Amino acid sequence: VLGGSGQQGGGIARRLARAGRRVIIGSRDPARAAQTIESWRASAPIESAGYTDAAAAADVVVLAVPFSSADGVLEACRPHFRRGALLLDVTVPLTFESGTAALVPVAEGSASEHVKARAGADVRVAATFKTVPAQLLNDIDRPLDCDEFVCGDSAESRTEAAALIAAVAGLRAVDVGPLQRARSIEHLTLLAIGINRRHKVHDARFRIVGL
Amino acid sequence: VLGGSGQQGGGIARRLARAGRRVIIGSRDPARAAQTIESWRASAPIESAGYTDAAAAADVVVLAVPFSSADGVLEACRPHFRRGALLLDVTVPLTFESGTAALVPVAEGSASEHVKARAGADVRVAATFKTVPAQLLNDIDRPLDCDEFVCGDSAESRTEAAALIAAVAGLRAVDVGPLQRARSIEHLTLLAIGINRRHKVHDARFRIVGL
Question: What is the ipTM of this complex?
Fold first, then answer.
């Protein structure tokens, strides 16, 4: 989990560890990441490493740094990714200029396609964990009780990503198709943020009815 | 309901009539619309009229024609809308080129902002009824059991639109803010279509958890 010391990455890391996965936090500052991990008192061990070492050690890499940092992290990690690794992009490029949340325009169409273009040809990319609220993810004893959307560059990427989602207690994975659907998922996040603000709640999230 | 003989408009018209609202179907061909209404054997009376007569007679106008027909219908109706009327845009500009669904780019940002720009200065605009599946709406004895999203050009527009939504059995209105949010709602529709196809269901729709 690159950026696993943050709220979103930390929540994903701890919930995956609890689901029995071996988890490595990739961080700019592995010593500080180790302190964060220590503070979690997690039931399962979580390791820490630098970005590139973490990338080199994983078959599934979660990109949980802020979108604005993604290019630098990807450039550093690109030579280190395992051949055929699955990269899960969880970023949402938000801006809060002029007092209201909006999605940053991305030339490739979505954050995930932007990431795909920079991940290297040997890396598969799927988008997920974009809509479950970060602070809820990170409050790991609270039930999630919602759906999480998955799209990806192949049926196989989506299936693998969906299996990881489904391993997290309280999450149902909903496959929504090709990676271009990532922008629609990013719009869901934008809507959820607006709903939180407007309705004075904190954890608005989604459930598909009729599925 | 302009375009009320179609699946979406017909479902909205019949469910609003059932909720006790007086409903007029606005149609290019009012005589045929009258036949359609006859075939519904609705419990409450529904009237038919031409587009402009229907527009002139309504405080709330539902724009339920295909997005590709919206410009023409709005141009015809603009001089006839009541001052301060509320126009509910339910259109979603979809294309199915190259075998996969996508949103048509709209210069104004969303279908609803496009509609706003053409509705006339005295008309208020809100977006809603974009995500409940048309064929489910039109199968009026089936429960909807989901949320419907509302955004609009003022708090007052949103409140009025939300009240109309809430009058329909089984629908909860979720206010998501200003009219620019319409594009995010249109993305929800795109996601639902993809989910239907991919998971071989027909009525994928949304429920907000945590609200």
Answer: 0.94
